[in-house]
Every structure is written in structure tokens, then in C-alpha cells.
Specification:
By secondary structure, the chain is α/β, with parallel strands linked by helices. The protein has three domains: about 240 residues, Glutamine Phosphoribosylpyrophosphate, subunit 1, domain 1; about 210 residues, 3-Layer(aba) Sandwich (Rossmann fold), CATH 3.40.50; about 150 residues, Glucose-6-phosphate isomerase like protein, domain 1 (Rossmann fold, 3-Layer(aba) Sandwich), CATH 3.40.50. The chain is about 35% helix and about 20% strand. The chain contains 20 helices and 25 strands. The strands form four sheets. An eight-stranded antiparallel sheet has the order 3-2-4-1-10-9-11-15. Strands 5-6-7-8-12-13-14 form a seven-stranded antiparallel sheet. Helix 17 runs parallel beside helix 20.
Length: about 625
Amino acid sequence: MCGIVGYIGFREAYPILIKGLRRLEYRGYDSAGIALIDNNEELSVYKAKGRVSDLEESVKDKDINGTIGIAHTRWATHGEPSNANAHPHYSQSETIALIHNGIIENHAVLKTQLEEKGYKFQSSTDTEVLVQFIEYIKSLNNCDLFSAVQIALKQVVGAYAIAIIEKGNPDQIIAARKSSPLVIGIGEGEFFLGSDASPIIEYTNRVIYLNDEEIALIKRNEEPKIFTISNVEITHEIKELEMNLSELERGGFPHYMLKEIFEQPETLKNCMSGRINVEGTHITLSGIIDFKEKFINARRIIIIACGTSWHAGLIGEYLFEEFCRVPVEVEYASEFRYRNPVIYKDDVVIAISQSGETADSLAAIESARKAGAFVYGVCNVIGSSIPRNTDSGSYTHCGHEIGVASTKAFTAQVTVLTMMALAIAKEKGTVNNERYLSIIKELQNIPAKIKTILSHNDKIKELSLIFTYAQNFIYLGRGYSYPIALEGALKLKEISYIHAEGYPSAEMKHGPIALIDNEMPVVAIATNNTIYEKVVSNVQEIKARKGRIIAIINEGDEGIKELADHYIEVPSTLECLDPLLSCIPLQLLAYHIAVNKNRDVDMPRNLAKSVTVE
């Protein structure tokens, strides 16, 4: 869950590494560090607790020359955030420096063995154990660094993306990965490393994605050589990135999160582009067409995901069951493989992940594939691990999402799931043509309707002032709105640190209604649907107990306006598409409350964007 960046070439490395760290800071921001080899072939490591800006301040009077270096921004797993625990870590002789994303699960055993041989440790991290172990292997076998890394990684249990440089060897970076992303950028006479493409795209759009248990030997003025840990050389195709630099800038918005909320009309157009024909009469998803028999004959669909993607999966459950008439289970990926699930060979497993690198989801995919199920990926990052480890899939094409609290990726996931459900239902004959066409037409109207909601941003900002200092929130929804209640509560928790819970509206009577009093804000998603009257009754139950109601309603709904203390209007749409609209005001409400509380909206405490460790 940390950010890795590396450079070797003809330019000064430090400015490239620092800029790369800033672009990767959304992946981890407890501490940051940098290692450089200067023109005298000396190796220096500088690091600081806190943000990348703290690192920059700490090196102002230091020698930061050199055309090779590695850098890291950390999200703590082993050891609290501190200068000592920050990466890069030196080996005991201070001749090797290493940065690492992941977890070395057998670090305690390795550390004990190394301590018995006289090794001393300066940090509480598993990463320092790894670099010390590599140095020990190098000394024991009297071999070069690359061979030592290969030997060491054969004995390591866990996940890693690592980059290593060595004193006296200014022409070489060694990089390796297992269950944690790492990409090599190919420039003209220079090479780059990154946890993702964001620190690379400014310099080159040509990249190599390392696969699990592969090690790259990156030498100055030579093509990178890639081997397995068993020393089998691998040939990799160079991919071209579709990302552009403007996606990494805030574009005049105060935060990436707000920018990404406002991008949703365009991102959903991009998501649908090329998939809905010009006439708006047909959906084409190549991943469905190529494997339509798998979907037509599926015994059931299992959706695996985490966090916001899990909420998108819940909406997918409603969509697939309603339109495709197939049973659906939605599973937390983190629990899926540990409860020995029953998986049939004619199951379809859909894995949803923004980053395509979520460790829990990748582990669940592995379990599903071993059981013989067909696995379909839904993710945003082209070339990431999930697309490379699934049988087929669909990209969401919503552009690079930097804000840790997901917004545009969520609506893009729901849009893809909607198109998938319709495409499969059409193939199965479980949706009539009139309804099929009406949903496609309305789906194309959603971006314009989101624009209408965004035009109410100032009103939502004003409303947020009333509830900035609330201690708790409850979010309620029924049917398709229940997952939105969960997602709205999650957004508020993530960025404002206010305790919030989402419930099905009817479940309030079974316990949670005891929490209602005149201090409790209750967000009721009360748009028109087939059970609207029951939602009204649930709102009346809250009102009778003096709950403070914020209602999300359709334009022109006068009934709930009279019950609610405050309301936010959204345009009417089909019930199955309502989540794409009702989530927008909840994203804005959470954002403005967090800003009012002076929270770091884009990088909330204890969270990281890409969860690449279990």
C-alpha cells in the first residue's frame, strides 16, 4: 500500500523522484524517503516521518546529486510511522538500500536467524529484515547482488514489490514483485519505476508490467532483462499507456476528490462509449460476447470485492437477479477464501476493484480459479493484476482516481455492471426488448442528470455547515438504495471521521431505532420506487422519535419535503439506475463536512488508495 518510484538515466534523479513521490502520495503518507548514488558512487539515504514535503524540507542542506535513485512513501504495516521505520532501509554495511511495498510474513523467523549471526536492526519493519537477509545471502554465497536477491526471494514468504540499489554500482537497479504492483517505464536512454504509472507518464508512455516472482535487472544504457526467481529469462511485451498528464492535476479544484466528483458526467460517458451503439439500441461488451455461454449457463454469479467496490457489487446483485434471473452472492474478498466456500465449475465469479491490485481480491480470484470457476474482472487500471489474472473482463475507463475515497470509480463500476446485466439478459432472453431499450436510453441520460445534481453543490455545501459537528449519522435506504446508504455512510466515515452506519430502512425497527433522538442526523434516500410508500412510513417512524432527517428525494416530491428537516433533490430516473444519481449528493455532503472539519480530504488518516496487503 506504499508508493515506489525509481530512476536511472542521464538526468538528475532527485527532482524526478520527488515529483514521483508527490504523485504517489495517495498510496501512503506516513513517511517518505529517498536513496541516491552520487557521482563518487557513494550511497546516501534520506528519510522523514510525515509527508513528502517533510522529506523535501529535511534534505535542503544535503547532497542530492546523482542520476540513479529509488524513493518511497509509506503506509505503515510493521512499525509505527517514524524516521527509523521509513524506507529506504540500509543493509548493516550500508552498501545496499531497499524499498518495499507488501508484507514479508516470515520476517520474524528470518530476523531471529540474522540476529543469531550478529545482525543488528534499527527499525521495527519487515523490510529491514529483507535487506539484511539479502546482504547475508550475498556475503554467504560470495555472489553479486542480483543473484543474492534471487536466492533470498526463494526463501521469502509474503508479498513484495521491491527496488534495490548498491553502493559502488551506479549503473543498476534491481526490481522484483510478488502480489504487489510494479511497472517499468521505458524512456530514451533512461528508465523509471513506479507502483503505478502516475510518476512515469510525464516522461514516457511505454511500460513493462512485472508479473509475480519476476526480477528485473535494469542497467544504464541497456534494455531491461527480466528473469524468474528460478533464473529463467522472460520476454515482455512493452505496453503503451492511455493515461494523460492532465488526469494527475487538480485542474483548479481544491481537492482531487471534488474534481473527481465533478468529472462523473464525462467519466460515465467514457465508460459507455463504444459499448452502447450510436442509435442507443444495443450494448456490446466483448468480454460477454466472447464467453456468452459461460454467462448464459451460469449456475450462479458470485461477486467478490472490498469497500466501495463491494457496495457496487451489492447493486450488481439487484441488477443480475432482476434482469438475468440468476442467483447472486456478494462476498467480501477478504473473507471469501478463508471460509472454504463452495464453488462450482459452472459458477461465474466477478471480481471488482478500482486499482486492479487489491490483495484480498487477487487471493479470492486465485481460490475461484483453482475451483474451476470462470472469473471476470471489473477494474479501472489497464494492465493491472486483476485483468491479467482473470479469464475476461471489462475496464471502467473512468480515468486515474487519486482521491482515496472512491467516487467516480464507484459510479463507473455500477455503470459497467448495469451494462453487463443488460447484455447477459438480452442473450438469455430474460428481458423484453421494450424494457431493454428504455433502460439503455435512460442510461445515456444519466450524465446530464448528474450535471443537474452537481449544479446544487452550493446548496449542499451550505447544508453541510449544519451537520459538521455531529457525532453520529445514520443512512437509510431500501431496494437499490440500500447499498447507497452503505456507500454514503462509508464516504462520511472515510474522510470526516464521523461515525456513520447504513441500514435497510425497514431494519430500523429491529434495533437501531433505539439510537434515534433529536441529536441524530438521519439521511433517508427516499426517491420514487416500487416501495416508496413504505419508505415514507419509515421516515415517519424516525420523525416521530425526533430524528433530524435529511432526505434525498426526486424533484417535485412534496410528500417527504413536509416530513424532512432538510432535503436534496435529484432528477427522476428508472429505479434500477437510481443509485447512479442518489450517490452524488452523498459524495458532496461527505466532502463538504470533511472540508468544514479541516480534514485532509484526499489523504484521510490511516487509509491508502490501493490496498495491496491483506
